[in-house]
């Protein structure tokens, strides 16, 4: 059913009107994993809008460089690197490189991840590892490297993790990602408790649907409208909204908040009622486990 015309659908400010001062991150360096495209790039741009210098880490150097170029266009220094977040030695090298180029890393955004729709019984060990190790191992290894350096300097810092709103419910065709994102959320709370005495805050965004060029969310017949009609807020999120909230958790505006998993999904996780469409088992869905190809 289309969203009725009389329903109020709130829209965000345009991208060039971030909800914090342009110098709130001035003099700080942020490292964004998977920051060359999609949600990671949105995070990186949001930090740049607050004046941070941005290091973009990605598996693909070409994509990282493309993202860094977009970030530099916002008027801040940016540096691109290629790194596999599953390799602790490579992470240490990337941190060293960032600090040589941009100075000490005081902010970290863990976004690197992978996902694809597949029935649980069809997930191979390699496929399972490809998704879970990037999200779980990568988030932990980067966070631990960050924390060791900040503790050694006697300085605090802030970390934000990109989780997902289906961590409490799972999602059809997403056993690998649901497990990984749930681990990220639990890790967020534990790391926050361990590192609070050192002034290091750790939070996560449990993100809903934020369609972008490299995502499959909402790519179905009829465009994005059918997906928006299913969300209580009446629309999917704009990608810069996710970036803004991620960056805001790292600002002094949220200086007393740590260990929190914030749901940003337009109320989609609340959409559980007896008037929902009939359940179709993932294996029987004509358009694949996610309900679209």
UniProtKB/TrEMBL annotation:
Keyword Oxidoreductase appears in the UniProt entry: yes
Record has NADP as a keyword: yes
Domain Ketoreductase stretches: 28-227
Origin: domain of life: Bacteria
Keywords: NADP, Oxidoreductase
Matches recorded under Pfam families: adh_short_C2 (PF13561)
Name this polypeptide is given: SDR family oxidoreductase
